[in-house]
Amino acid sequence: MENKDPLPQINHRFVSRVWIAAGIISFIVVALLLSWKANQVFLYTLAGAIIAIYFHGFAGLIARKTKISPKWSLPLSIILSISFLFGTFFLIGARVTGEVVQFTKEVPSLVEDAKNFIEGNSNIKLIYEKIASSKIVEKASLLLGGFFNSTVGVFGDIYIVLFIGIFFTAAPDQYKTGIVKLLPADMRLQGNNLIEKIVKNLRSWLKGMLFSMFVVFVLTSIGLAILGIDLWLVLALIAGLLSFIPNFGPIISIIPAALVALSKSPSTALWVIVLYCFVQLVESNFITPLVQQELIKTPPALIIISQVFVGIWLGAWGVILATPILVIVMVLVQELYIKKQDQKQSLSK
Q1: Which residues contact 148 (CB under 8 A, 6 or more apart)?
Q2: DSSP result, 259-322
Q3: Which residue in 54, 79, 212, 229 has the fewest CB atoms around it within 10 Å?
Q4: What's the whole-model pTM score?
């Protein structure tokens, strides 16, 4: 009986494994390069998906309350949302525009008043010099600069995001099915369930954030109006919009309000700061727990870490979208790792 040489078969297996390993490494390298160079595409896609989730969530609310079929509730949600935006702009747009123009004109004098106040107070001057020496302002300027110097500009970004959101809204199942089909056949059911879980968490997060932004706007506008602050409407809008960014947004919104109040008196500026701290206290202790009731529990420190990390990687847009990115990562870790480890542990007992 003739003995066959096993060496060619061994070499063939070895070469196959080398090619497989090389292919995997190449795929990882290409994926990392794309994620680094084309990170704007990821942000556009995520922002568009959030817009689509909002429209579908609003459509579901309309369908539940009015018994309208989903065929009509979805376009109705888009029409109502756009009508609300245009109606709001029509009612308060002229007032806000006037206040913004006035605020822009007053910024140089407000900054000068702030400098004079700092120079006249030795303790505050010492704190300011320490902050300036730590280059915090420089780093913040670079971070914000990344936002305004993005690939196609801010308005171009918004234009692209809106169109992506509209396409996602029109045919969400088509895109979800396409993603699921990329998975192996035995993993498609799990992949579909995972996407549904992510969408559910993002919907709950977005619903809570919109409610939180509205509460911050109302409380801030009432407080500023009581204090007799000029430009109270635009300042309250800024506070409401920036509350979309946890931790850093409320801090940024204090700056223009404090500058405007400082033009009246230092005590007024102090009261405005107290007001903003009170609103933030209410939001973080009462609103945020309501937001996270239906979400995977996320430690506050982890949100800050994710904002810093994603902000360094993706710029200011990354800071804005850091929380939904963290929500997605937490769902993936929970479903793909923690639950499987728990199942293995329960089976081993």
Answers
A1: 154
A2: HHHHTT-HHHHHHHHHHHHHHHHHIIIIIHHHHGGGS----HHHHHHHHHHHHHHH-HHHHHTH
A3: 79
A4: 0.68
Structural domains in the chain (count): 1
In the chain the first and final C-alpha atoms are separated, in Å, by: 52
Residue 276 lies in a domain: yes
Going 46 to 50 to 53 to 55, the CA torsion angle's sign is negative
Highest mean pLDDT among 24-33, 72-81, 95-104: 72-81
Sign of the dihedral defined by the CA atoms of residues 228, 282, 54, 153, in that order: positive
pLDDT in tens, 118-170: 666 666 656 656 555 555 555 555 544 444 444 445 556 777 787 888 888 88
Task: Report the alpha-carbon distance of residue 197 to residue 295 in Å, rounded.
Answer: 10
Query: Quick check: is 214 in a domain?
Result: yes
Nearest CA to 39 out of 312, 328, 332 is that of 312
Does residue 174 fall inside a structural domain?
yes
The residue assigned the tokens 């568009």 is: 48
Q: Which two tokens stand for residue 155?
A: 């308005």
CA–CA separation, 157 vs 53, rounded Å? 19
